[in-house]
Structure formats: structure tokens, C-alpha cells
Amino acid sequence: MRMGAGVPKQFLEINGKPVVIHTLELFQYHAMIDKIYISVLEEYIDYMQALVDEYHLTKVAGIVPGGETAQDSIYHALKKAESENPPDSIVLLHDGVRPYVYADVITDNIRAVKQYGSAITGTPGYETVVLSRDGQKVDQVPLRKEIFTAQAPQSFYLKDILSAHDQIRVTPGRYHDMVDACTIMTTLGRQVHLVYGNRGNIKVTTPEDVYIFRGLLQYKENEQAFGFGLTNRIQAKMDHYRRKQEREAQPD
Q1: Mean pLDDT value across residues 131-142
Q2: Rounded CA gap, 250 and 243, in Å?
Q3: pLDDT at 3 (0 to 100)
Q4: Measured between alpha carbons, how far is 70 from 178 in angstroms, rounded to an integer?
């Protein structure tokens, strides 16, 4: 509804490719990823399988029907993974509509789980965050240096994240206000480790996000084609101007 589109947002095509494929390819081509499990609305499973075949996503090990909530959908994928993998496997939970996570962030997540047992991708907050209980007045202004925005992947040992889901699912509220794995873990009093993510790791949710992602893709294409990005080009222009000034300042 927020996207205002007639199809689920993960199937919207950007630069001729569905958003979910942009996302999946990041994991398909990462050397440390062995298997991919996809949870999707049941009526789109056949279409998702067709896309997997079309784009040769050979690491996809299963496509399962989603549930009533996002966390139900994740649980279905985790249970499928549990049936085919050891309990100490590392799982990275990722949104199908986060198509711009860096490979280094995926690597850092895996390494953090091995070292700390968990990894929550996040970026430092650059704007002032205010808390308001009624949406009318400001109740609290947290220190900006203590604010991070949680993103994905959010990564754990398979047995740990399944145990957490099982505990939450038997509570009266189940997944009420449980927006992600980080919320589930902290609600249960479990420690989670922060891994720094990349700023472009947006969740494509609104029409504005589509334009942002298109811009990010163009930025990546420029880097690949010319060997440098926006800031490098600016620095190159500044260096050229500086050298010109130095030449002009030299005596004849």
C-alpha cells in the first residue's frame, strides 16, 4: 500500500530487473553464502521460482509460503532451513527489498556471529531523533551519538534465532510490535552485537525509494565503468584545479 503499486514491491522492476533479484544476486554471488531460502506470498511462489530459474540463482534451496506477519514468514523459512541444515549453521535474515547491501557487510555479519553469536546491521544516526508517546509533544530527545538505525542482514546461529521465535510465539501477544529479529532478541533479554552497515542499504518501500535505488545503481555503474565514484570525481577536479593554480603561480 505504501508503494501504491498493483504488485508486491519486491517484484517491481528497476533497470529491467525485479527488486528481489537485485537483492538475491548480492547473496548468490557472495563466496561465504551457501544456501538461500525465500519466503513469499503463496500465490507468487510459482512466479518466484520462474525468476530464480531465469536468473540462474543456483543457491536458492527453497521457496516457502509466507505467513500472517513478516515474522511468521521468516519463521517459515527458518523451519525449512532447520529441516535441511545443522543447528549451528549461521543464518542471515534479509529483506527482499533491501537490494543495496555491500558484500563487506555480509562478510562482517558472518564473522560477528562466529565471534559474538549475533550481528545486527546498523548505521549511525545523522539526524535528531525525538520520542513522542502521543504524537503531539516531544517526550525525549536521545543523544545522537547513541542512535543507530537497524537494517539487515540480522544474523544468528540457526538454533538461537529459532529458539527466540519459539519463545515469542507462545506469548499472548506473539509478534505484536516485533518488527525484526533485533526486537525479538532484545525483548527476551538476549545480547546482540552491532555491525556497521552501508548508508545505501535502503528498504525500497515507497515511490521515493525507487528513485533513490535507481540513483544508487547509476552510482555503482559509474564506479564500474570509470573506476571511481562521485567523491573521487570531485577530488579529481579539485586536484586538477590545485595543479593549475600551482602552474600559474610558478615564475616564467
Answers
A1: 95
A2: 11
A3: 47
A4: 9
Strands (DSSP E) found in 19-169: 36-40, 60-65, 90-93, 118-124, 148-157
Q: How far is CA 34 from CA 25, 29, 40, in A?
A: 13, 10, 20
Alpha-carbon dihedral sign for residues 16, 19, 25, 28: negative
Eight-class DSSP state of 49: H
Kindly state the average pLDDT of the residues 122-143.
93
- Identify the DSSP state of 84: T
Q: Pinpoint the alpha helices (H) of the chain.
A: 19-28, 45-54, 70-82, 103-116, 158-169, 181-187, 207-226, 230-249
Q: Which helix (H) or strand (E) holds 18?
A: strand 17-18
Indicate whether 241 pLDDT > 90. Answer: no
Provide the β-strand partners of residue 245: none
C-alpha Rg value of the chain to the nearest Å: 21
Peptide bond into 86 cis (omega under 30): no
C-alpha cell recorded at residue 138: 516531544
